[in-house]
């Protein structure tokens, strides 16, 4: 049995229902979908998404990232994206292993195993696709296989996770992971600003204030922020606001006016216009549609 076939077997046995499922292995989740899904907004945190079967498309701004068993996806910072499973069926469901990336462990490994040459310091996009190497796939299979041997998880899972992080650091296209592991990289400066925006998205703020948090001039911050997120800081904040407003209407049955006000909109009409532009229909109609349909996997 090949490594990919083994991964499909393990993940398929441990997730029988569609959705995202936590596991006894810290930081590891398994995702299943038996059908293609409609595009759904979600915030990706620093994560590795390694597909065992099927295909997923994620939109960051206007850029599409399609990943499958041949290509894994890395999210380096917190990013509001729209994702949809585009290849799945009842007989061959979409199956994915998702691993939260430990910044402390990554940084320690990067110090022990420095890159052969330095890059120019320019930040990479916040999402990246890279080829799934046999070594990375083999490590992922051994990590998933611990679900069949729960007594071994505490002793062995940290070792296999460390190997996976090492493979990401030393494999092809490792620049984004190297930048994540470097405390003073441009990527981490932008990550500080993103973390602040996620905490304060409903507040009025000036770009100069956010640039100060990142430790950059206004013009440098704007250029690097767009390179990482494919959005301006204000567009990024709007996506956070609209995603949270959507959650409030669907999960807490809040009306559109109340949700818009809660996330920082002073004008109900502006909220409705921005919402329809992002989600394709007015807030109340979209919320009703979502409440009457099942949720979709986001990994």
TrEMBL record:
Protein known as: Transcriptional regulator, AraC family
Gene3D superfamilies in UniProt: Homeodomain-like (1.10.10.60)
GO terms, molecular function: DNA-binding transcription factor activity; sequence-specific DNA binding
Pfam families per the UniProt record, alphabetical: AraC_N, HTH_18
HTH araC/xylS-type domain mapped to chain residues: 191-289
InterPro entries: Homeodomain-like_sf, HTH_AraC, Tscrpt_reg_HTH_AraC_N
Organism name: Pseudoxanthomonas wuyuanensis
PROSITE patterns registered for this protein in UniProt: HTH_ARAC_FAMILY_2
Keywords (A to Z) from UniProt: Transcription, Transcription regulation
